[in-house]
Fold:
Amino acid sequence: MELLERFIVAAGRAGARVVRCLDRTALVDYIARHAGGTVLLPDFAAGRRLQLAEALRQCGCEVVTEHFRAGAAQASAGVTGANFALADTGTVVLDSTDEALRLASTLPQRHFVVLDPRKILADGLAAVGPLRALHRRQSPDFIAFITGPSRTADIERVLTIGVHGPGELHILLLEGISDDPLES
Amino acid sequence: MSRQRSRDYQVRIDAALNATRQQDALHRFGDAYLEARQQALADLDFEALREAIAQLKDEVGRHRQQYLDQFIELAEKAGAQVYRAADASAANDYIVELARRRGAKLAVKSKSMASEEIGLNQALRTAGVEALETDLGEWIVQLAGQRPSHMVMPAIHMFRDEVAALFGQVTGQAEPADIEHLVAVARRQLRDKFLQADMGISGANLAVAETGALALVTNEGNARLVATLPPVHVVLVGIDKLVPTLEDAARVLQLLPRSATAQALTSYVSWIRGPVPHSDGAKELHIVLLDNGRSALAEAPDCKDALRCLKCGACANVCPVYQTIGGHVFGHTYVGAIGVVLTAFFNSLEAAAELVKACIGCRACVAVCPAKIDLEEIILQLRRRIGDQEGLGLGKSLVFRRVLRNRRLFHALLRSAAHLQKPVTGGRGSIRHLPLHFSSLTEWRTLPAIADKPLRDLMPSVEGQLSAPRLRVALFAGCATDFVHPRIGLSLVAVLNRCNIAVTLPQGQSCCGIPALYSGDRQTAVELARQNVRELLADDPAAVITACPTCSMALRQHFVELLQDDADYAEPARRLAAITYDAAVFIAEQLPELPAAASRGTVTYHDSCHLKRGCGVWRQPRQLLTGAGWRLQEMERADRCCGFGGSYSFASHPEISREITKDKVNAILRSGADVVAVDCPGCLIMLRGALEKRGLPQRVAHTMELLGEALDAAGEGG
Ligand code: SF4
Ligand code: SF4
Structure:
């Protein structure tokens, strides 16, 4: 199976919603319709390139771009990019060294991830190269592998979604943004 | 002292046996886990991967200092403050002092078994710092004032109504016992605490020497908050979590989540290196590298493999003893098989003494361990150490030293037992009731009687068997076949004769020594090994055949190990090992085409622990049975232990054994088969006794008996 297909199946199995977006408008529209309230939008390459802040505001979203600590508790969604992704587990990998990225991807109920399908790698072993490159680029660093929404099975082993992290993970596939694993 | 300890432990076992709701839950979990795990591993080469993990972990074990130095150097270069804690109190002191220096009042914790190991919460509380668990299961257990009963699922012993009651005390209102609701309550209650906390404390699953980074493998997302929100993050990590490179880390990540929760990957893997930016000022990252017995374990040649452990919990999930008495009783900080071993090194041998005896030796844990640790073997080694230290108990050691080592005396006693038992057998061949305090042994199964005549007296002479045999093999009967079920031996001889192979029974053979070895009496085992090697090889047979997989393991593995430093016996022991075969394997080779037999009915096959996981044999007996005309109807989990375990069921832990047997009997009944085939006289004794006691009509027979009957029938027909 092609990497993209495998990624979509695996991410779906892990409980993520994977959406193939035809263009920037479709992507912005999807976020606006599903955000459900204030959106945390940290600074990241794809977001800049797609000019997400203006576009989301134009769609009527309330967008916060700084001082996340104060507003995070009330925010309902966070939007980030991804450095790369892993097909066999449906994982998105995000260099979250920047605190704003960490807050936007951990605190709100929904996490939207913008991913260029060219960034999909086969598996964890294939990820070692880019991971090493990220480590080499900066220190200290915090790199997050994210696979599906936050979950627990701690009460009677019943799978329950959304404990401390996002209860929804939306992966928005859009071609032509970037294939560079060093940027998100 | 050890007497009192055993009595106390027995009280705890009894209480756990009465907790039937927990038992049911752990059983259902064990079954569901095995299925989900199999699916999660479907596309991977599990054996190759776990071999790779064993190797990389051993590499770290061999060059511990080098990898530690490398990790520390790089972590410090990234700005982390690294402290090496030799033991629990050093680690606690460091963290408490740090909290004091920072004026911390509240610490939020994500799951860390190492912190359970050192009693960190207690140490912080004493210093006036509240340590709040935020992993859902850990929080539940903390609110209940208990300790985790499982390494991955801390609250697996609790139920939604109990959780609702605990949460109700926190919120001050009645909380409905609805799981989704309860999870939402936890999110709400803990969210503010994350934001208020002065300190975050977590464990780590990996410490990568190549980068100086830590990896946290989690599902709930609390570890990410613990690492991000407070200005100080303390990572308490055992030095056993070191791996050399990122490739090694990737390998561990392939098996860890699949083994722990049957997930391809957990929701989050966070790679943290150095103190990352924090908007309220400078962030501190403290890494406490915990030894606390790990170096001692690395120096113990016969136990050190346990340091490979990934803490996935799989060994507990599949363990019949864990499923029966739970992690609070079959464990200490860590539970299940690995808990037994780590308790001996992280706490004390004394603390592990009862746990070591509670293992039935079924090797289910060994089959699933992603770090390829022979847990059962290590537990045996510990049993030996405890035997050396505490003695075996007067009765047992007398029996082993005086009786088992003296074949003539042992066999004479068995023969006289055949006569002495007459009053209790009533001539039936099995014992249904025993007088007085022995009666608990026959309460739930009948005991087999010693046969009137042992196999050694019934054996047909070689000349009487065949006129021109093409091979001559020796039979190692083992005590159970020789003295309890000689029919098994006679059937085996008949089947081998059909292959034109003559069989001898060397008269000087004795007990294989496993009962002594498993009880910790190595010297008796060594003497029996010598005696058997000498007697079995005396006549230079083409092969040695056993109908008991425990004996087979003794001849093929234990004798070689026991005698490896014996100048006279090391080589013969290896020679014997090379020509020893399990009956089914040998016959499947010698008699590939069974004479077509008429349909013989429905059989279900029970895999003996020692045959399947000890000798790696499960296909051949099935092949022989179906070839002989039986229709095979598999039971659920055919390879789950039957509860026998030698003296485990008779002497040390009959109550646990009874529960395990009950599961097996139920699986047999659900299969709908009329006959249960086994390849182990021990399983045969156990299952026949249990079925008979319940008045059930299903027959239990050794594969060799069934094969002999099928060949007889085919011979008559043709
Ligand atoms: S011993 Fe093996 S199975 Fe048990 S927890 Fe450790 S890695 Fe997992
Ligand atoms: S050998 Fe069997 S009883 Fe012993 S710890 Fe392993 S699974 Fe449990």
